[in-house]
């Protein structure tokens, strides 16, 4: 059995390598510009929690992605004669999204580091800034220079230039990496870290909108290859790169970044800070709740059906199918859900264009199905073998025995375990935020970034999750009581 499972995993790995290596878009001649013009859209990947580059505002109850980078993207799309489409993703997911064709370009305050240049192409630099260190204002006197950070916790977003700069130029500091700018600021304000390194424009924006913070010059040294921000494109996109560079040249020649785009971003920042109450952002939480419930319901129904199918197969007479079902369950249970979500979205997305919401629901169903199959299989095994013998003596077929005798008793046996798995599934929906699904945790991060408040959005999300799980627990307890009551009446 172990040998078979090993072979299956090896075949899956080879298939994935084959999919990537045989991707037609990777081998075709440069049609990057023609493809964008033909479809009429330029898809911009961005992580909208980095003011003033890109962030979200709550304008008249509607969520809107704005910022300097968005304005640049609009001008590029206008020059190309196409429509700009902005796709939200976590910063860590941007490069995979570009390489798998989910986005046409990354415009998200990204620095063209040598490591990144190995996997993607970059346009000309469109904006250059220094690196600043954010501190709690009352700690300003404690850090007169960079040497004062020795032994202290200095944080940055993982995968960013700032993260690498801390590692190389503050080797004696305790490096802390986080995936969200909002979490970085929250960690700083709650004294989980001592300092946060960010680009000067973003650090200044946070300091201006939060009187408890201050931004100081980091005096970091950057090479010419790292200095500034550029737009990332898929390898071999020479034609699209040249066209975008022409737009960037025009933008820089007219000085629009300083004279227009940064000023526009500043006005939008005032929209967010005008009312930072959680009631003002109730629409964000309601939208997140809607998607959380949708994913959870699909996961519960789809996972239950898949789990039942897998459990029946494992009791079947067809040995190869039993082995495949066992291998599937072991593989899914042996890999993290987050990795599975990214594989469905980015890996399978090479062959079929799957949107983020669909990919998240598919991954949740596939994952929950494996766990539920084990619960169902255990329940079937717990049914008294005499029940099968009695059914056979009455002339019932195997299918009829399973449907009318085994499964009803199995449901009563496994009901508490099913309830626990369903509650875990609801909480697992938070994982899909990594691919940009606007469920509750994703919306929580947006509210944190927009309002510069860290704890209040977390408290609201906790209450919402608790209410959902509490209601589900009550519902499950009600039906468990009915099952037990019905069984007592039958025995009586």
Question: What report would you give on this structure?
Answer:
With 492 residues, the protein is an alpha/beta fold. It has three domains: 31-127 and 228-274, D-Maltodextrin-Binding Protein, domain 2 (3-Layer(aba) Sandwich), CATH 3.40.190; 131-217, D-Maltodextrin-Binding Protein, domain 2; 282-491, MetI-like fold (Orthogonal Bundle). 60% of the residues lie in helices and 12% in strands. The strands form three sheets. It has a five-stranded mixed beta sheet with strand order 5-1-6-13-7, sandwiched between helices. It has a five-stranded mixed beta sheet with strand order 10-9-11-8-12, sandwiched between helices. A three-stranded antiparallel beta sheet has the order 2-3-4. The longest helix has 37 residues, at 455-491. The radius of gyration is 27 Å and the shape is elongated. Residues 1-11 and 14-27 have low confidence and may be disordered.
